[in-house]
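protien #1 (seq + structre)
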Amino acid sequence: MEVHRRPVPLRSRERRLPVTQTGTRLASSMLKTAWQRLIVAAMSAGVIATEDRFNLHGLKHRCITDTPGTRAVKRDGVGHVSPPMTVRYDHDMPVVTAPKLPVGAFRGLMRSLIFPAIFPAEEKGPLARP
């Protein structure tokens, strides 16, 4: 028995990536069911841990975050039209160097800004430090 095949549209906008065996558009409920079966099978096979379970939409976030290059390169790769959409999906944290403070600067900063009631400058008590 030959399965009825539909012709593939020439324009990429008209082509669907996930399709059924007959070439018709895959319904979202079918995709969700297939994804859940895949994740359950991966967990039972020990490929991923139960606490590492992720959803299908999370793949888009991970893909954009893990793609090397600038945000413009990432935007071109995923097909976003606007830069704010790429920023929303990109969770890449820039690597910065920590500021170098003098040795006693942190103690003075803590006393003056964060704990002024505990470390008053003029009071010498059990909590005050020389």
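ok now protien #2
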Amino acid sequence: MARRESRKAGVLGDLQRLSVTMEANKDQLQGLEALRLKLTGVVTQTLDLSKQQAAFQASKQEASKKLRQLLIEGQSVANVIRTAVKDHFGPREEKIVEFGIQPFRGRKVKAATDKPAPTTPPAPAGPATPVKLDQ
């Protein structure tokens, strides 16, 4: 018993081999002529669709490449437009928010922390109690 293929390429190869074998033995298989012709049509259509699919894949890759180029070009034009809009209205005007630009609203002042300066206790000048030496 023949092993059945499950991948597209394997199935197509199996169908092509069967079609060629049916063609070579069509004299001995007169009762299966309608099925042989149907199989030949299916194989032909499958090959045509595989070629069309490959062409579409190449076309898709080309379209993807063109799309990437256009997006990069669009970003460049958008940057120029935003710069011109910012120059036209000014960097502080809220109107430029509509164009996706954050206006300059000034710098935030850091809160001054009122910590007292650390004080160090004065060092003792000498011993607090006189030291007696034993004589």
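The chain has a mean pLDDT of 86.
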